[in-house]
Amino acid sequence: MSSSIHARDAQRTNRLASATSPYLQQHAHNPVDWWPWCPEALALARELDRPILLSIGYSACHWCHVMAHESFEDPATAERMNRLFVNIKVDREERPDLDKVYQTAHQLLSQRAGGWPLTVFLTPDDHTPFFAGTYFPREPRHGLPSFTQLLVGVERAYREQGAAIREQNRSLLEALAGLEPQGGAELPEGSLLEAAFHQLALSFDAEHGGFGRAPKFPHATDLELLLRRQARLAASGGDPDPRPLHMAGFTLERMIRGGLTDQLGGGFCRYSVDDEWMIPHFEKMLYDNGPLLALCCDAFSATGESIFRDAALATADWVMREMQSPEGGYYSTLDADSEGHEGAFYVWDRDAVRARLSAVEYPLFAAVYGLDRPPNFEGRWHLHGYRTPAQAAESLGLDLPQAEALLASARATLFSAREQRVHPGRDEKILTAWNALMIKGMARAARVLERPDYLESAEQALAFIRSMLWRDGRLLATCKDGVAHLNAYLDDYANLIDALLELLQVRWSSADLAFAVELAEVLLDEFHDAERGGFWFTGRSHEPLIHRAKPLGDDSMPGGNGVAALALQRLGHLIGEVRYLEAADGTLRLAAESMRRMPHAHASLLMALDDWLDPPEMLVIRAADDRLETWQRLAQQGYRPHRFVFAIPSGIDELPGTLAAMRGGDRPLIYRCRGTHCEPPVTSLADL
After folding, report:
1. What is the dihedral of CA 429, 432, 438, 444, to 10 degrees?
2. Cβ-contact 188, 591 below 8 angstroms
3. Contact assessment for residue 444 and residue 313, using Cβ atoms and an 8 Å cutoff
4. Over the stretch 312-324, which tens digit does the pLDDT of each residue have?
5. Helix (H) or strand (E) holding 333
6. Which parts of the sequence belong to the Spermatogenesis-associated protein 20-like TRX domain (predicted)?
7. 348 forms bridges with which residues in the sheet?
8. Could you give the 3-state DSSP secondary structure of residue 140?
C-alpha cells in the first residue's frame, strides 16, 4: 500500500511541469502547489489575501537542491506552505529582473548580502517584501529557525502586524528609490582609473592572486581593466608600472593552475571557497567562461605565455564539446552536484589514479596535482596545481618537454576514465545575454589563436539567436526546447551589440553590422532614459515591478550600463552616429557619483570612460586581394585593446554612415580614425 502511494506521489505534478526552465521543472513533482511568476498567481494571492512565498534559485545551485530536498519535497512542510501562502518559484537566470529587485530588498531588510536560494515573503496586493532570507534548514541550527517555524511566524506576523508591515513596506520602497543614481552635469574624472587601480592593489593577494579573502570570484572585468591599464601605460612611453600586468597575470595564472579550473576537461568553476583557488563551488557557468576565455586570449597576446593560450584552448574546446546545442546556441550551466553530492564528478581516490597511470606518469602527476599530499576534499583529491610542471620535472630529473608530454598523456587517460561517471546535470536553456558573452569569447579566441572552428561555433550561436530569439524586431531572453519567451533585458541587448563588434573584427559581415544597429535602436527606444541618462534594466514595455533599476556596478557579469556605454561608443564612432555617442556620454554622467564612491566596483564603466577620454584608434582596411587578410592580421598583432581593425572587401559598397565614404579603390587602402576625426587613406601599413 505504501509503495503504491509513493509511486502515485512521484507522478503528481504541479504547474511547473510545463515551464521552460529546467530549474522550475526540478520542482514540478514537489508536493508544494508551486506557481511560476504570472498574473494568475498574483491575482490569486490578492483574492485569498495570502502572503506570497517567493523562492528564487537556479538549477546548478547546491544549496537550492538542499533546501528543496529538506523542505519542498517534504509533504508536511508542503501542506503548511500550501495552506498559508501562494507559493511562487522563479529561475533567477530567466528572470534576473525579479532577482535583482528582491536581492536588493533582502539586503535592505536584513543588512546582509543575499544569495541563493532567496526566500522572500511579499504582501499580496503590492508584492512588496516584508521578510527575506536565503537558505533555511529543516531543523533550527546556526542561529537560523527551521523553515517550518519561519512559515508559522511570518504568516502570524502578516495577520497580526499589518500596520507595522505597511509602514515598513513604505520605507523599503523609499529606500529602493533612493538607491537609484540621480545624474549629474559633469563627466567622471580620468583620475578614477588611477583610483580604481590603487583600490585593487590594496586588496590584492600577493601570495595567491585575486583580491580580498575567500570566497574568491574570478572578476574577469577587473582583470581586463588592469590589462588595459598596462597597455595604456606602455603606449604612453617612459618606464611603465609593472604592477597592473603582474596583478592580472598572476591572478589568472593561479586560477588556471588551481582547482578553480577543471584540469582534465577545461572550463572554469564559479568561485573558490578558499584563498588558494583550490576547492571551487563546482558549478560551471557560461557567463563566467565567456569573459574568462576572452581574458585568457588577451593575457596570451600581452605576455606570449603558453599557459594562457592553453587555458583558452581548453575552455573553448570544452564549450564546443559540452555546452553547444546541436542547433547552435550555448547551454547555460553545469551543476555542482552529481549523484547527489557536490563535486563527486571531479574528485579522485589516489589508488584509482595510480592504477590508471603508468609508473612514469604517476609520480609526476601526483607531484603537480597534489596526490602526494593529504586529501583536500572530503577525504578525496580535487586536482590542484601545487607545483608547476617545471618544478615537478626538476625534482624528478625530467626535462620539461618530456614532463609536459607525460602530463598531457595522464590527463587524457583520466579524462577518458571520468567520462564513464555520471555527469553533472546540465541546464539546457539558452540565454541571450550569456550566449553573447560566449560569442564574444569565441570570436576573440578565433582571432587570437587563429582557429576557424571557434569562429564557426560563434557564428552558429549567433544564427540561433537570429532565428529563435529575435522576433518582430525585439529580442527574447530565453529559449528551451524550441520555446522562446520573456522580454529581453538590458544585458541581452548591450552584450549582443558588443559581441557583434567583436565578430566584425574577425571577418566582415554587413548583415551583422545592420543587426548591431537594429539592436542599438531598440536599446535607445526601450531602455534609455533620455532625461536623466543611463539605461534601465527592463524595457518600457516590460511588466511593472516594485522597482525599476539602472544597475551601474559589475557583479558576476559586466554591468549592463557599462557594456552599453562602451558598445555604443564603438558603434557610434564606426558609423558616425552621434545619438549613440550622446547616450554613452549621458550614461557616464549619470554614473559619475557612484563611480567616485567606489571606482573599482565599476570596471565596465571605467573602460567606457577610458575610451571616452582617449578614443581608440579605428582602422578600416579596404582591399580586394590577399592583402586584406594579411594587413588585418598584422594590424591586430599583440595586445591592442585601444585599436579596432575592420577588414572590408573592396566589393562591398553599401555601408552606413561614415563608412560609406571609406570606399575601396583600385589598390588597397587603409583608413585611420580616432574618435570623430579621420585621416586621409594610406596605401600600406608602413604609412601608418
Report:
1. 160
2. yes
3. no
4. 999 999 999 999 9
5. strand 333-334
6. 13-176
7. 381
8. coil
